[in-house]
Amino acid sequence: MSVVLENDYLKVAVKEKGAELASVENKKTNLEYMWQGDPAYWGKTSPVLFPIVGTLRDDRYVYEGNSYSLTRHGFARDSNFQVAEQKADEVIFLLTGTEASREKFPFDFRLTLKYKLVKDFLEVTYDVKNIGSDIMYFSIGGHPAFNVPLVKGSNYEDYYLLFNERENAGRWPIDPRGLIVDQPVPFLKNTSTLKLNHSLFMEDALVFKNLRSRKISIKSDVHSHGLDFYFDGFPFLGIWSAKNADFVCIEPWCGVADSVLHDQQLTTKEGIVNLSSNENWTRTWKVRFY
Questions:
Q1: How far apart are CA 34 and CA 37, in angstroms?
Q2: Cβ neighbours, 10 Å, residue 55
Q3: Of 211, 199, 209, which Cα lies nearest the Cα of 241?
Q4: DSSP line for the chain
Q5: d(Cα 74, Cα 258) in Å, to the nearest integer?
Q6: Are 94 and 34 in contact (CB under 8 A)?
Q7: What is the pLDDT of residues 147-169, one digit of tens each?
Q8: CA distances, 166 to each of 54, 283, 285 (Å)
Q9: Nearest to 265 by CA among 68, 76, 97
Q10: What is the pLDDT of residues 78-124, one digit of tens each?
């Protein structure tokens, strides 16, 4: 089942399973911005990455001497969320820890996702609360896939990503096991523009750490439509597409896949968030569609 949000500008659908954003339609142009999950390439549209981002070494981590198993990106994306609150232009989804989740992630948590429309913006807010007695360690991230090409008659290569700052940044390659290598390779060289083509993603995602930019846009020179994606507060950014698929994912992350050198200890995992008992942690990414 899906929840539909609507205002004068946008119509948005979010699935209850995984609290997964499924559709963003511009009511003035009838453009659909979200990839529709063709399983021939990739069957998701915007999974929620929690309580890890990316892949663990051997799909396992160690906490307080015990070993736990978690598959890539964690279990939230396949979990059934509850609708905790709903308005015409806003919905809040809720996921809490269970006996089954504690076998994989030994913490008591409350995860809420809020989707809110503000004019031509969609705001997506993660709120994590530690309802246990010990410090909680987690990562979280977004994975929305946007249609490229966006407009009929245009091609994938007609589009580019525009950073709001000039960047000198290496990408951190992902090895065949899904792990981050220990050194970056040169990639963005004093530029704010990255032209899209399918060959960019033949070796998995482009992973960046601590970019100067806090906004990235999808644009084209053949028409005036696109989007502005704001990710303040997220230290890692992934950009990805399935091989030869007509979408691009912009992925704001608080957390990252294990390094090839990581010792599997959860408490020392790169980017891990530490949350004290009874404390809340919140981050928001937002997108303007035009």
A1: 9
A2: 20
A3: 199
A4: -EEEEE-SSEEEEEESBTT-EEEEEETTT--B-B----TTT---SS--B-S--S--GGGEEEETTEEEE--TT-SGGGSB-EEEEEETTEEEEEEE--HHHHTTS---EEEEEEEEEETTEEEEEEEEEE-SSS-EEE-EE---EEESS-STT--GGGEEEEEEEEEEEEE--B-TTSPBPSS-EEEEEEEEEEE--GGGGBTB-EEEES-S-SEEEEEESSSS--EEEE-TT--EEEEE--TT-SEEEEEEEES-PPBTT---BGGG-TTPEEE-TT-EEEEEEEEEE-
A5: 13
A6: no
A7: 999 999 999 999 999 999 999 99
A8: 27, 24, 21
A9: 68
A10: 999 999 999 999 999 999 999 999 999 999 999 999 999 999 999 99
Main-chain phi, psi angles of 272, to 5 degrees: -65, 140
pLDDT of residue 74: 98
Please compute Rg for the chain using Cα positions. 19
CA–CA separation, 21 and 34 (whole Å): 8
Nearest to 53 by CA among 174, 161, 194: 174
In degrees, rounded to 5, the angle at the alpha carbon of residue 150 between the alpha carbons of residues 288 and 240 is: 80
Closest to 231 measured CA to CA, from 161, 132, 159: 161
63 touches 137 (CB < 8 A)? yes
Among candidates 283, 288, 279, 286, which has minimal Cα distance to 271?
A: 283
Domain ranges of the chain: 2-285
Block residue for tokens 């990316």? 54
Decide: 147 and 154 in contact? Cβ < 8 Å: no
Q: Residue 27 — pLDDT band, cuts 50, 70, 90?
A: very high
User: Hey, what CATH class is 2-285 in?
Assistant: mainly beta
Pair of tokens at residue 175 = 């090895």
CA distance 258 to 154: 38
Q: Which residue, among 139, 130, 135, 158, has the nearest Cα to 224 in the 3D structure?
A: 158
Q: Tell me how far apart the alpha carbons of residues 201 and 207 are, in angstroms, rounded to a whole number.
A: 11
Residue with tokens 């954003």: 21
